[in-house]
Amino acid sequence: LADYIVVVSNGAGSVSSPPATVTWNFIANSSFELPGTGKIKTGFDTAGNDVPNWMNCGGTYTDTGVQSGGHSGSWEGVDQTDEGGTYQVTGYRIRAGDSFTLTWYARGEWNGSSSTYDGTGPNDAQQTVTILSATTTSTDFASTTTLAGQTNGVPGGASWQPYTLTYHSVPADVGQYIGVSFITIRNSGSGTGTWTGFDDFSLILNGVP
Q1: pLDDT digits (tens, 9 = 90+) for 15-52
Q2: Angle 22-24-26 (CA atoms, 0-180°, nearest 5)?
Q3: Mean pLDDT over each residue of the chain, to the nearest integer
Q4: CA angle, 164 as apex, 144 and 62 as ends, to 5°?
Q5: Can you tell me the distance from the alpha carbon of 17 to that of 137, in angstroms, rounded to the nearest whole number?
Q6: Distance CA 95, CA 102 (A)
Q7: Dist CA 196 CA 171 (whole Å)
Q8: ∠55-35-194 over CA atoms, to 5°?
Q9: Are 85 and 181 in contact (CB under 8 A)?
Q10: Could you tell me the pTM of the whole model?
């Protein structure tokens, strides 16, 4: 995050404009463009098939990771229901009074029988996306703290849908590292065979003067 002064020279002197606010996305590899070597279906941090900056939440990974496609770029994250999700702890430590906005895109890919669905059927996926905190950037997912979360059904066959989640820090958060996670399950509560794509995560600090 930085403020810049824009200076315009008119020959007789210079005029300075007010500081310009520059927003910085704390999420690294936010659109899963790396490593860009092909489909990865064994999770996000398997040796030899690592997706930089993203870590496995834990569980089974047989067809979850990255694949070609996406809202932008050439790749997207993809999660199969009943498999583990992924998370990232950024290098930013929460300060008193911080407020964050997380945005991302998601789209249903397949629900076991169709690529077109409204997100409410028993085999359709629901996403759970969170803003989390951790004591270190490598903290195990089970030891992270959920600060805010959103769970909803994700339509398939439509265009990529944008989502937004906000969080205002409390004193207990100060000094912790901010991060994000996502995972999907079927609306019925269990079962593999439904996939959701994710792309273009952005976590920014609000209200920077």
Answers
A1: 333 444 557 999 999 999 999 999 999 999 988 899 99
A2: 165
A3: 90
A4: 55
A5: 38
A6: 17
A7: 35
A8: 60
A9: yes
A10: 0.89
Structure token pair of residue 33: 């463009």
Query: What are the phi and psi torsion angles at 79 (to 5°)?
Result: -130, 130
Tokens describing residue 89: 């702890």
Model pLDDT for residues 106-146, shown as the tens digit of each residue: 999 999 999 999 999 999 999 999 999 999 999 999 999 99
Residue for token digits 């273009």? 200
CA-CA distances (angstroms) from residue 66 to 10, 15, 38, 167?
Answer: 52, 49, 8, 27
Mean pLDDT value of segment 2-25: 45
Distance of CA 149 to the CA centre of its chain: 12
Burial tier of 208 (Cβ tally within 10 Å: 0-12, 13-18, 19+): middle
Structure tokens at 51: 């997706």
